[in-house]
Amino acid sequence: MIRLADITKRYVQGLNNTFILRGVTTEINERDFVSIMGPSGAGKSTLLNIIGMLDSPSEGEYYLLDQPVHGLSEKQRVALYRDYIGFVFQSYHLIDDLTVYENLDTPLLYKKIKSAKRKSMVCDILDRFNIVGKKDLFPSQLSGGQQQLVGVARAVVAEPKLILADEPTGNLQTEEGRKIMRLFCQLNDEGTTIIQATHSEINAGYSKRIINLVDGKIVADDKTAQRSV
Known about the structure:
alpha/beta, Rossmann fold, four-stranded antiparallel β-sheet, six-stranded mixed β-sheet
């Protein structure tokens, strides 16, 4: 599903190059559940953003579903993201002037799903996340944990083939976090590929594979011994 070849990300400051990623090469298959781990500054979020086409590598090749992302136009990348990817952002990225319901409806609008079907899908996800009572509120009226739940719901609502999650439970209480990770496991069992960046050993335990980054390089890539339940 995903093939990364010598992905490098660097920033030029005067005569100095600051490397965030250094020659990252790996493949991720459909139905994988991968955790990207490593210390702060290791490049986890940058790698996730490149996979999600929110950032571009300085060098290297990236293939998604056999499409050469590194060679696509901006319009083609937007269409690929819209059709196949759901992203859970660490800082929520909800649209401030839209209600919870409207935030959840927006990805479905982009996919040109008909109104009746959209309504059904949004109502189902509101119920699944137990946020029906929040549907008419705006993000500023929600707590950080509630915004995180809505952010996860928005990533899931359009039933993407690939979910990317940057610290998906970072602002949730323990039991809420467990529910999200169990939902990811359920979606993965149903065929969704999931890649999360996380500091949490507990969250990583839900995945099937752990990629460890240090200083922008992959230093380990191992299957997990036993998935948490």
